[in-house]
Amino acid sequence: MIRIGVLASGSGSNLQALLDAVREGRIDGEVAAVVCNVPGARALERARVAGVQAELLPSKGITDREAYDHQVVSRLRAHGVDLVCLAGWMRIVTPTFLDAFGPTAAGKDCPRVMNVHPSLLPSFPGLHAQRQALHYGVRFTGCTVHFVDPGTDTGPVIVQAAVPVLQGDDEAALSARILVEEHRIYPLAVQWYAEGRLEVHGRRVRLRDAAGPMLDGVTNPSGDR
Ligand code: GAR
Question: Are 79 and 120 part of one and the same domain?
């Protein structure tokens, strides 16, 4: 059973997906703590409803990012967290944070901080990934769960899901379609971690005992038939 710490800044729908997966036995672990940096964020309410300890650490106006991350780390440590899941955490984590949750022998040399991002990285890192995809005109975008490194959305990729961009999509419609996939793949990645099945080799993450490759291609738009 791993102890998961979730960091959220907003609605917390990915937090909810993790809470639901824990409750339904799809993750061998528990959400031990939620840290939120925005007063009134819905993520706080979701934690409360689930009976999970939520810590509000407002970050607005704080310029010393390392000192702030020290506080976050000490709260997570107080709850004995093994794995940290960024779930709409709209702050760049500092080296202080990443050092505190670096690989351990018990974690079989895996990093211990994951993030979910609403694009197929390395396309469209940073803010407003869905808007970036719409402006670029891609036919597919999607979401990525990755380990976190010091860059912005640059860490080793664990799992991705593709989502078509449909004619007439606006940012809200596309974001909603991507979120469905985020909620599906984030719990999967956390469970793989809990099972000790993830191995990091440089940039590449290997999933032990994965099923064979899917060879069917997908094309969007699919064209006239
Ligand atoms: C999600 O789409 C997540 O991928 C994104 O913020 C949203 C949070 O939604 N994260 C980023 O863009 C981080 N770069 P949620 O609060 O409902 O989980």
Answer: no
Q: Is the CB of 10 under 6 A from ligand 1?
A: yes
Give the pLDDT of the chain (225 residues) as one tens digit per residue: 999 999 999 999 999 999 999 999 999 999 999 999 999 999 999 999 999 999 999 999 999 999 999 999 999 999 999 999 999 999 999 999 999 998 875 555 789 999 999 999 999 999 999 999 999 999 999 999 999 999 999 999 999 999 999 999 999 999 999 999 999 999 999 999 999 999 999 999 999 988 766 666 677 777 654
What is the domain extent for residue 140?
Answer: 115-225
Of all helices (H) and strands (E), which one includes residue 162? strand 157-164
Find the catalytic residue in 70, 117, 183, 201. 117
Indicate whether 171 belongs to any domain: yes
| Radius of gyration over every alpha carbon of the chain, rounded to an integer in angstroms | 17
Q: Assign 141 to helix, strand or coil.
A: strand
Question: For the whole model, what pTM was predicted?
Answer: 0.95
Same domain, 171 and 73: no
Residue 211's identity, in one-letter code, is A
> Exposed, middle or buried by CB within 10 Å (0-12, 13-18, 19+), for 26?
middle
Q: How far is CA 88 from CA 29, 186, 192, in A?
A: 20, 12, 21
Q: Is the CB of 14 under 6 A from ligand 1?
A: yes
